[in-house]
């Protein structure tokens, strides 16, 4: 099962810094309790799905540039 959207090298589309921004933003909203480490692990992706659900966005694990931009605007 593919957990995140990947580029042609098999890496998540979001950079480490972007993932850290996502983790920090979701942590501030009480959706993420893990470390701010830039790794899109299970807890990060669970928080992403929960956040997307609350925002009425398509619920998936995709860390696309559109999602990162949305998070930047929320931060």
Overview of this protein structure:
The structure is a single chain. This protein has 75 residues and is mainly α. The protein has one domain: Muramoyl-pentapeptide Carboxypeptidase, domain 1, CATH 1.10.101. The chain contains 3 helices and no strands. The termini are far apart. The mean pLDDT is 86.
Main attributes of the structure:
single chain, 75 residues, Muramoyl-pentapeptide Carboxypeptidase, domain 1
Outline:
The protein is 48% helix and 0% strand. It is mainly alpha-helical and 75 residues long. It is globular.
CATH architecture: Orthogonal Bundle
Query: How big is the Rg?
Result: 11 Å
- Helical amount: 40-55%
| Domain module tally | 1
- The helix/strand order is HHH
Strand content: under 5%
Q: Structural class, from secondary structure content?
A: mainly alpha
The CATH first-level class comes to: Mainly Alpha
Shape: globular
């Amino acid at each position: 099962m593919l957990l995140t959207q990947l580029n042609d090298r098999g890496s998540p589309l979001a950079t480490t810094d972007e993932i850290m921004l996502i983790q920090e933003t979701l942590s501030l909203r009480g959706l993420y309790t893990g470390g701010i480490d830039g790794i899109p692990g299970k807890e990060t992706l669970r928080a992403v799905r929960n956040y997307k659900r609350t925002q009425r966005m398509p619920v998936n694990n995709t860390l696309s540039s559109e999602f990162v931009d949305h998070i930047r605007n929320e931060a």
